[in-house]
Each structure stands twice: as structure tokens, then as C-alpha cells.
Amino acid sequence: MQRKIAILLATFNGSAYLRELIHSILAQKESAFTLYISDDDSSDDTPKILEEFAKNFPEKIILLHLEKRSGGACAHFLQMLAYVDADIYLFADQDDIWEENHLQKLLAAYEENNAKNLQPLLVFSDMSVIDASGNLLAPSFLKLEKLPQKVLPPHFYFVQNNISGCVMLFNAALKNLALHDEKKLTENLSLVPMHDAFLAVTAAEFGKIIFVHSPLLKYRKHAKNSLGVQAVTQVSHIAERFQKQRSDFLRAENFAAFFVEYFEKKLPEKERRILEKFSKISSQKKILRWKFLAQNGFLKAGIFRRIAQLIRW
User: Fold this and answer.
1) For the CA atoms of 148, 154, 156, 161, what is the dihedral angle to 10 degrees?
2) Do 271 and 210 belong together in one domain?
3) Domain of life, per the record (predicted)?
4) What domain range is 240 assigned to?
5) 53-68 pLDDT, tens per residue?
6) DSSP state of 179
7) pLDDT of 33 higher than 60
8) Same domain, 113 and 130
9) Do 197 and 139 reside in the same domain of the chain?
10) Which residues partner with 218 through β-bridges?
């Protein structure tokens, strides 16, 4: 029986680059997929563009009309994920360009590691970085951001994420686990960093993650998203991130507390105790805090980030 592969594209005022993205998805070497698109009440030409593609490619594209406006990418993608029934899922961001072997290579890595689709499994890759006009800025997003080009232990993903939603593929086992209590998740969505981070942590804790050592997508850096792609060695970027460290760490603690509550019956006792302690780590004396973070793998990647982490937490 053929697997059902769903690509989920959440849009909002994305008319500038939307056509280029959709064309790149339709040009995939692996063509056995359905592209599901949901628009979040755009005020530009996005709805018109989507209707045009749906009309021209009815066998590949399905437009979803969700009941309510999500108001953000995290909520929007999770709403779509809950709505669509498939065996394998991928996310697509409206500004990017997929390499023609994007789906093919992620799927090949998936098939090598999950023959029966029973274990929660997530596969991800690197991506290149381009400017608004499509010119190459960096061949590797992970290198540019000084992020690990490998899979990390579970606790790393509570403080940092090297898995971008636009280059991840995952199975229904991971989806069903992550959304096992959709109502509770929706009610506490403010405690979840982003949809990709939530899936990454869930896969790391309960399943398996695979890294594909190839840039399978062109990530577009432009005015609306440029803050997400700056070399960490830039002085301005370091200063900005340093100021935000404290709020980031408190957010990580709150997320851990929610994660323990959400997966309480599924977490091993030892792991539950570690995460509970991490969720209250700010109340500990600094020396004890540092020791706990280091011993349990809660340190960020890179010397600059770790220094900021130890000073600001």
C-alpha cells in the first residue's frame, strides 16, 4: 500500500515569493505527495495565487479552510497537522525554495531507519541561505548560525533548536504522540517555543532523529525574517542575543514544566525528575545551577552562547 505523504504550507501575506516556492515543490523528483495549503486571512494577493494553483493542479494541491484564524505560524501549522491525515508529513514556509531532491533525500533517510512506521521518527537537513533576489549568501545555515550539524541529546532541545520546520520530515507516530491531547496543547500554546521545536523535543525524548548532511532548501533572508539569520560572530547580533538570554531561559523553563505535565504518563520517572528540576532551575544558587546544566546536557552550542547562558541564567 502506498504511503500518504502530506506537505503542509501555512501562508499569510506571502505573495512576493509564493509562486516560486510552490513551483519548486511541484518540481520535486519524488512526486507521490499532496500539498495542503491553508491561508491565515491574508490581505495581499496570496488567496488569489493559491486559487490559481489549486485550479491548475487539482490532483496535487488541496486548499484547506480551517474554522478560525490562527494568528501565528506555530498555531497555524499545528492546526493543519491535526486536520490532515497522512503517514508522513513535511512543513513548507512561503518564502523558501525547495531543492528538487528535498523530499527524495529526506524520504530515503526515513525509509532506511523506520521500515514499519512504528517509532516516532523525525528526519531533518541543513539548508543554504539566499537573499531576497535569490543570490546565495551562505551554503550552510547551520554553519552560518554556529549550530551543530548533527543530532543532539534530548535536553539540548529544551534550550536550543538546530532543526528547522521547513527541512523536517516526520511520521504519523510522532504526530499522534505530539498531539495526543490537542485541547491541552492548544490551551497552553503560549508555553511552546515553536511547532518545530516542540516536535524536535518530542522526537528526541520518545523516538529517533536523523540528520541528512545536505542543504535541501534555499532559506530566503529578507526584511521580514532577517533577524532569524545573522552570523553569531557579528557584534550587534551577540549584543542583541545577550540581552534576550534571560527571557529565553525563563521561557525554556516554562516549556519544560508544560512538557512534563503534557507527557506525565509517558516520561520515565528519572527523566521527569530531571525536567522538573530544570523547570525550576532559576531558583537555585548560581554554582548549583551551572553544575546541573552542564551535567545534564542543558548547555547551548558554541562558546559565546554558553558564556551568555552561564552569565544571564
Assistant:
1) 60
2) no
3) Bacteria
4) 235-312
5) 999 999 999 999 987 7
6) T
7) yes
8) yes
9) yes
10) 97, 128
Residues 6+ apart with CB under 8 A from 43: 13
Tell me: do 156 and 224 sit in the same domain. yes
CATH number at residue 223: 3.90.550.10
- Is residue 206 within 8 A of residue 271, CB to CB? The reply is no
pLDDT digits (tens, 9 = 90+) for 177-225: 999 999 999 999 999 999 999 999 999 999 999 999 999 999 999 776 6
Alpha-carbon gap, residue 225 to 96, rounded angstroms:
11
Domain stop point among 199, 228, 257: 228
Following CA atoms 78, 83, 85, 88 in sequence, which dihedral angle do they give, to the nearest 10 degrees?
-20
Specify whether the backbone of 254 is left (phi greater than 0), alpha (psi in -120 to 50) or beta: alpha
Q: Are 69 and 41 in contact (CB under 8 A)?
A: yes
Please indicate, yes or no, whether residues 85 and 111 belong to a single structural domain of this protein: yes
Beta strands in the chain (DSSP E): 5-11, 34-39, 61-64, 88-92, 97-98, 121-130, 136-138, 168-171, 208-220
User: 178, 205, 228: which is the final residue of a domain?
Assistant: 228
Amino acid found at 228:
G
What counts of helices (H) and strands (E) characterise the chain?
13, 9
Rounded Cα gap, residues 75 and 195, in angstroms: 8
Are 223 and 239 found together in one domain? Answer: no
Answer with the residue of higher pLDDT: 225 or 120.
Answer: 120
The pLDDT of residue 226: 44
Instruction: Annotate 19-40 with DSSP letters as a single string.
Output: HHHHHHHHT-S----EEEEEE-
Which of 2, 185, 184, 199 lies closest to 91 in space, CA to CA?
A: 199
Cα–Cα distance between 184 and 123 in angstroms, integer?
Answer: 26
Three-class SS state of 219:
strand
CA distance 142 to 197: 15
> What's the number of domains the chain is made of?
2
Instruction: Compute the distance between CA of residue 139 and CA of residue 214 in angstroms, rounded to an integer.
Output: 10
Do residues 198 and 293 both lie within one domain?
A: no
